[in-house]
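Q: What residues go here?
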């Protein structure tokens, strides 16, 4: 299974995701794709098998992924302070891969029911969902 983790800005959510996925599923292959080089570098530090940066990396990664994981902003044009281009959002949204989106209330996208959940709790839920997908 090829998992693509996409993140932007500082890449902290992506780094935590990569680290947790690798700890729980060491044999899973992870490609980290950052919307900027800082995010990419941070996800590599989390243990990604390979990494790439930028719009085309997202487009290509979305085509070959079995599972795409990242904050909900990766499907919203101009999200993550403008780092997600319309082409990136379209590529992720239209990908045949399953998508596991972390519902963070940022980027002017508010999700009911998430205000009382910490980022750590959301990431734990994501790992449980990945476990269900892999099994």
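A:
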């Amino acid at each position: 299974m090829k998992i693509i983790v996409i993140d932007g800005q500082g890449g902290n959510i992506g780094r935590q995701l990569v680290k947790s996925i690798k700890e729980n599923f060491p044999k899973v292959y992870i490609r980290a794709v950052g919307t900027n080089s800082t995010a990419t570098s941070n996800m590599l530090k989390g243990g990604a098998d390979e990494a790439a940066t930028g719009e085309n990396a997202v487009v290509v990664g979305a085509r070959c992924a079995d599972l795409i994981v990242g904050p909900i902003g990766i499907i919203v044009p101009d999200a993550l302070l403008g780092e997600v281009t319309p082409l990136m959002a379209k590529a992720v949204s239209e990908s045949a891969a399953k998508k596991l989106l972390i519902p963070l209330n940022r980027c002017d996208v508010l999700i009911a029911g998430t205000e009382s959940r910490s980022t750590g709790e959301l990431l734990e839920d994501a790992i449980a969902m990945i476990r269900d997908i892999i099994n």
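A: Context that may help when evaluating the design: The helical segments are 12-24, 37-45, 55-64, 79-82, 86-94, 119-134. Strands lie at 2-7, 29-34, 50-53, 67-71, 98-102.
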